[in-house]
Amino acid sequence: MSVGEATVAAAPDGVKLAAQAAALELTGVTKRYGEVLAVDDVDLQIAPGEFFAMLGPSGCGKSTTLRAMAGFESLDAGKIYLGGVDVTDDPPFRRDVNLVFQDYALFPHLNLRDNVAFSLKIKRVGRRERHRRADEMLERVALPGLGDRRIKEVSGGQQQRVALARALINQPKVLLLDEPLGALDLKLRKTMQLELKAIQRDAGISFVYVTHDQEEALAMADRIAVMSAGKTLQIAPPKEIYDFPADRFVADFIGESSFLTGAPETGGDGDLVRFRLRSGERILARPGLAPRADSVAMVRPEHLELVAKDSEPATPAESLNRIDATVTELEYGGSDVHYFLTTAGGEHLMSRMPASQEMFTPGTAVIACFPVEKTVLVQAGAGSAGQQQPTTDQQPKKGSRA
Known about the structure:
Blueprint: E1 24-33, E2 36-46, E3 51-55, H1 62-70, E4 77-82, E5 85-86, E6 97-100, H2 112-116, H3 118-122, H4 127-140, H5 156-168, E7 174-178, H6 186-203, E8 206-211, H7 214-220, E9 223-228, E10 231-236, H8 238-243, H9 248-253, E11 258-260, E12 262-269, E13 272-277, E14 282-285, E15 295-299, E16 305-308, E17 320-332, E18 336-343, E19 348-354, E20 365-371, E21 376-379
Parallel strand pairs: 3-8, 3-9, 6-7, 7-8
Antiparallel strand pairs: 1-2, 1-4, 4-5, 9-10, 11-15, 12-13, 13-14, 15-21, 16-20, 17-18, 17-20, 18-19
Helix pairs in contact: 4-5
């Protein structure tokens, strides 16, 4: 029996954990539905007290992986360990985990207290004791004194907290959450993100959180596993994934990105790589995680500043890449403006700048400036998931915010 080791930064305070039994470990987990390979040889190690997010588009295998952790899906290959104990063949009720569904699955005929205490009743815990523990748990999730209310008498956000309280009352080793905020409106979802993180820190147990919403994952998780076509493409803390994505799919899925095609050249400047664009212009970039022979240069829109042809940027020229571009479209967003540009090489860029600055109109020729240190090479082709990548001539996606 193998005992997993958690060696990556995992604790909520960012402290690296030394060799220590993983709260949850998956090794070589594979699941097929007929000819469909839903989960493909997935390895994960989740540390005690870690908030771990599984992020990816619909159909990438994240929810199937979560159900396998809970014991609701049998495996075609691989092992699952809880606290170092092999639970691969154990049924759900023998695993020390709880699962929170998107629809909460609360009992409408029971009040909040009895919903939270339901599992204790099944375990034949005395009425007074289970009510005491349920009231304590309701207070923990910021619902003190509401135990006598019915489900229909509380809001969607409060129902979410009831579902969390019910899942936490047995103090599982790991709490599994399958897109639990998906049914809430945007403002309430933002509020619940903060509350979920606070509840997780207070409970001190590992959360595994499945979502297709990049902002949720970036805001709450200690680490993120980005999935596509049943595979994990990258597992890292949010900032690392955002700043140094493993490949173009990850870069495009996490936040907004612009890509410049070209070829690396010999020479450079210290750790920086000299990169020749299709227009013939040259830039410097950080090597990132990409093989140099198969890479594109990535820059985030918040790092791309536009200046008029006859102007100079405030940042020293030696620390900036500069290329010619033309504004093709803009979107006003209140506090900022999104600019969509075409380069001299026919590629498309995106810039996000404060709305307080003078706006550039479509058709304006500009210089696109972006810091050398924020220009990163990423793998150009399909990632390890075999996901088809967008072509370099596709216009950057609109309407999303990093």
